[in-house]
Write a structure and sequence with these properties.
By secondary structure, this protein is mainly α. It has nine helices and no strands.
Length: 193
């Protein structure tokens, strides 16, 4: 089926997301799935700060050695600087809005600066993104990516291993999926949450 359908950003993203989930869920095959995820997105980390390129940056970071990480830090800084230069259009969707906290998240991870102040800044930025009223699937994509980064930075066999960053990502994930966060962001939360 893949050979018969044209390649699109959406198909590449769906495939990459599947492999990221498998990498997080099946540690024994993690490297295989991480490699497939990186290949699936079909872009390099040098693209602009869009959904696919942020995923490519994250995967490059997860697989990069210390020497390569330095160039990724510069790339995350470039994404952050370019984001400030982009005009705010009136016809922005959730992915346009969540680009700011996602870019900030990747920058802080690469700088290894996820302290309490950084977490508070991220929670505020994601709360602002929530005002764009994402669908449950869109919000799950955001929080699943944070969980993925937590799992990868928590894996001592990967070059990105950093227990402090992993713990901070776990805390951020817990906040963003909590009843308190969702209610504070104006979501009516049912008892089935």
């Amino acid at each position: 089926l893949d050979e018969r359908l044209p390649v699109t950003k959406e198909r590449r993203s769906l495939r990459g997301s599947l492999y990221k989930r498998l990498a997080a869920s099946v540690p024994s095959s993690r490297m295989e799935y991480l490699t497939k995820a990186r290949e699936s997105y079909g872009v390099g980390a040098a693209a602009t700060a869009e959904y696919q390129s942020l995923n490519a940056l994250a995967l490059a970071y997860v697989l990069a050695d210390e020497q390569a990480r330095e160039s990724l830090v510069l790339e995350a800084d470039r994404f952050w600087s370019a984001l400030a230069q982009q005009p705010l259009g009136t016809d922005r969707d959730f992915w346009d809005v969540v680009k700011a906290p996602d870019t900030l998240l990747h920058r802080q991870i690469l700088h290894r600066s996820l302290d309490a102040a950084a977490l508070a800044e991220l929670v505020g930025a994601y709360a602002q993104a929530w005002q764009a009223r994402p669908s449950p699937r869109q919000w799950a994509s955001v929080t699943d990516h944070i969980w993925f980064l937590h799992a990868m930075t928590g894996d001592s066999s990967l070059p990105c291993h950093d227990a402090t960053t992993s713990a901070a990502l776990k805390q951020l994930h817990g906040i963003l999926v909590s009843r308190a966060f969702l209610e504070a962001a104006g979501v009516v939360v049912g008892d089935d949450l």
